[in-house]
Write a structure and sequence with these properties.
mainly alpha, 327 residues, two-stranded antiparallel ribbon, 7% strand
């Protein structure tokens, strides 16, 4: 299939160019969803056919938890000097004063991801937080605002979403953005909201999508389609919309797919992420899909699905115990 063809193409390219090593680098990745993890497993299975090819990717989770067979290269804390070097690449002219450098080192705890997120936040809020008028360089203008800066990209995006005035972008829209994996169009968003019994007008849908792309930068234009910009955005919107509402959106996607109103190749992923009671009603579909994935050797995806199902069973058991206690 696709991954076999990619493996053959890259192997041929490496041989023709006389390369001893060809590295497939997956950049700026913090987490994989289930379908992406299945694709990565398939790709990994094909690449060992040519020893020249290696896959390198970043992830916030260990390989064992992802179900991948790989060599891990853990990234530890920066030294103070490495922190100052990164800060110096951002504050070139004027440079950051030693006091600002030290404040960033302490707040980031010298963790690369924390420091990266803090520097991005400082850039966005520079006029409110920083003082550029001092002859010795940039310093903190507002210590309270500096202390409130989020240390992770997810926290930064969550703060932005939480700061929206009520009613500007409904929680259901945020949940749809967080749950839908592919290209998002006005038609898809309209279908999802109608399935949630929150039918919008075409003008509302267009206004929400425009705001999410141009004002809040959660969406980006990829060809002719709108796609979510990053995993931190997805995780933040999910938290703000609430996981319970997101479960309902996953259920809506499954129902639209079943009724032929919305094509979703990854409908099984949405089924597993639906409310536990909805999952329980579709036991035969779950069994059939799991058997199909086992037959194709997609074991890492099966493990993730079983983990999600285990959580759903626990949730149903807790509900049952609560109902008995109430009775």
């Amino acid at each position: 299939g696709t991954w076999r063809s990619l493996s053959l193409t890259l192997g041929k390219f490496a041989r023709q160019q006389g390369l001893d090593r060809l590295v497939v680098l997956l950049r700026n990745i913090s987490e994989f969803n289930r379908s992406e993890l299945g694709d990565l497993t398939d790709l990994q299975r094909e690449f060992p056919r040519d020893s020249r090819i290696r896959i390198v990717s970043t992830s916030s989770e260990p390989c064992e938890k992802l179900g991948l067979s790989a060599k891990e290269i853990p990234l530890g804390r920066f030294t103070d000097e490495e922190c100052r070097e990164l800060i110096g690449r951002v504050f070139i002219m004027p440079p950051a004063q030693p006091s600002l450098q030290q404040a960033l080192i302490e707040k980031s705890e010298r963790l690369p991801s924390y420091l990266n997120a803090l520097l991005k936040q400082l850039f966005q809020e520079r006029e409110l937080v920083l003082d550029f008028s001092h002859p010795l360089g940039v310093n903190v203008r507002d210590s309270q605002r500096f202390d409130q800066l989020p240390r992770t990209l997810i926290a930064a995006e969550r703060r932005l979403a939480e700061s929206l005035p009520p009613g500007v972008i409904p929680p259901a829209v945020l949940a749809c953005l967080a749950c839908w994996d592919g290209g998002l169009s006005p038609e898809i968003l309209t279908a999802l909201l109608e399935q949630l019994n929150q039918p919008p007008t075409p003008a509302q849908v267009q206004a929400w999508l425009d705001a999410c792309r141009t004002q809040h930068h959660w969406l980006q234009l990829s060809g002719k389609e709108l796609t979510l910009r990053s995993f931190p955005v997805r995780a933040a919107l999910r938290e703000v919309a609430t996981p319970e509402l997101c479960e309902t959106v996953h259920q809506a996607i499954c129902l639209l797919h079943e009724n032929g109103k919305l094509r979703c190749d990854d409908w099984f992923t949405h089924l597993v992420a639906s409310p536990p009671s909805f999952i329980q009603e579709r036991g035969s579909q779950l069994t059939a899909q799991l058997r199909e994935r086992l037959a194709k050797g997609r074991f890492s995806e099966v493990r993730l699905v079983l983990e999600a199902l285990h959580q759903a069973v626990l949730h149903l058991a807790e509900r049952g115990e609560g109902a008995q206690a109430t009775a």
